[in-house]
Each structure stands twice: as structure tokens, then as C-alpha cells.
Amino acid sequence: ATFYERYHDLNDIYYWMERIIQDNPSKVKLILIGSSSEKRPLYVLKLSLNDNPDKKAMWIDCGIHAREWISPAFCLWFVQHSLSFYGQNQDITYILNNMDVYILPVLNPDGYDYTWTTNRMWRKNRSVSKSSGCIGVDLNRNFDANWCTEGASNDPCTEIYCGEFPESEPESQAVADFLRNHKDEVQLYFSIHSYSQMLLFPYSCSMDEAENHKDLLEMTREAAQKIRRYYRNTYKYGAGSKTIYLAPGGSDDWAYNLGIKYSFTFELQDVGQYGFLLPPSHISKACNEALIAVKTIALRVIEKT
Ligand code: 0X9
Ligand code: ZN
What we know:
Blueprint: H1 10-23, E1 28-35, E2 41-47, E3 56-62, H2 70-85, H3 90-98, E4 99-104, H4 109-117, H5 170-181, E5 186-194, E6 198-201, H6 213-231, E7 236-239, H7 240-243, H8 251-258, E8 262-268, H9 283-304
Parallel strand pairs: 3-4, 3-5, 5-8, 6-7
Antiparallel strand pairs: 1-2, 2-4, 6-8
The structure holds N~2~-sulfamoyl-L-arginine and zinc ion.
Residues 65, 68, 140, 193, 200, 204, 240, 244, 247, 250, 252-253, 265, 267 line the site of N~2~-sulfamoyl-L-arginine.
């Protein structure tokens, strides 16, 4: 198996990022957007492969939930694919000629490290709650989108704890600050999770329909169809609240309300056989499925704007 067909611990991912920027100094920049509650750096890679001046951008974050290891693996896969196949593969070349890409490979580094050292099934970040002594906020309940309503909990000891207030956590605040500062540039937002094989879009924080629901539905329908055709696998698609469950405070809904009208959460493989413990032998297919979905949607967004 190649480097990209294995899972990597946090230190390996930090080393990988350094190597990527050293090997591709004109194409990839490293941006420090903040630090985690345990003071680990939050690095975003900016891929800029073409110097077309009025380029827009897409954002991809991975690893918001610590135990979803296929998610950081996808961010690495995407970077590798972009750098290797720019100028070779027609779709990625077209996309990168029209968009820069901001990639945050591990949004929740403290939680991710904890899944490697101590508890493989950890989900949240690692901040300590003053009131209860329980640890961790669900970062995908900590954004300012119907924050802490039905589908989240104000009990710090639960897996879906929303935190003390919206953006109380340094990780969610760093992402929100970065996107607020780049909102005119970023047209397309992806947050990568596992598992359950779904392509989701707003809203998840209420039963409301997004203003461009039809567009979002059509884009995810086409992406799911490509996955079925090329990889013989089934992905559900639709608005989050109706497809998975009501879950407020998520990054996708927040980004959408900020004005990023193409905002998606992907749940990668599988549907529960291995769940979060997806074997390394499945990484390549899981990532290629997600990649074809990202490409399909990015091409449609470029076409519309
Ligand atoms: O519950 C979540 O945060 C996501 N599912 S997971 O099993 N990976 O935890 C779904 C997120 C969908 N989007 C929002 N709830 N905003
Ligand atoms: Zn998740």
C-alpha cells in the first residue's frame, strides 16, 4: 500500500504538510489559522496551481470528528491527486484553473491525536468544561446556526455537547474567522465526515428548505449517480435534516448562512460494517468516490458562476 492508502497519526500529517510545501513551493502555501485548545497548530494548505487573477476558491475541511479517520485520509488524497494530475486529468485541471483550494486536513487535532493514543472512538475536541469536569465539545454543534437547539445538548458529558456559546472553541472559531475573512472568494464549502455514505446540504439545523435547494439536490444527485456508475456504490443525498437528522450548530449550515451558497457535508464509507474502523484496504475506493463527488459538484459550481 502507498502512503495514501494508510492512516497516519497527527505527527505524520504535520510532517507530510511540510514535505508537500517544500516539494511544491510555487503551488502550495501553508497558512496558520489558529490553534487548538491544547495549543496544536491549525494549518490550512492553499493550492493555487494557476495564476488566473480573478479565481474563486473552494474550502475542504477534514477531521472535525476525531474518530472518522477516513476523513483526514481524504484530505491527503485530494492534495496528492491535485498535485499529481493537474495537467493530466481534464476535470482536476479545469477545476484548478478556475479555483484555488483551501484544505484543512485535521480540524480537530487534539481529538485526532487522542484517538491514536488513548481512545479510538473519541468524537469531540479535548477542551475541559469548568462546570462538570467532562471533556470535549462536539465541534459540529458549536457553530452559530440555530445553536444548541434540538439535535444538540447543553450537557458537557454527552457526545453532542454544543459548548458554552457559539464558537466557544478555538477550532471552530479559527475556521469561522478564516471563512468570514475569505467569504467573497470562497464559493464552495465541503466538510468531510464518516460514516453512512451520504451527500448532505443545508439545512440540518432546521426543517427549512435552502433557497437554492433544487440546485443543491441536482448537484448531489449527479454526484451520487457518478459514484454508482464508476464505483458501484450507493450514496444517499438530500438536505441534512431530512436525510440524516436534525443537528444544529454545524459548519455547513453556518457557512451557507454566511453566503457560501454551495455548502456540503459528505459522509464517506461505509454503511456500518466497519463504521469508523474502516480498514486501510478500503481507503482508496472510499477516497475515489468522494473525489468524483467533489469534482462533479465543483464543475457545476464553476459552470454557474
Ligand atoms: O452529526 C453530525 O455532525 C454529522 N454526522 S456524524 O455521524 N459524522 O457525526 C452530520 C452533519 C450534517 N450537518 C449538520 N448537522 N449541520
Ligand atoms: Zn462526523
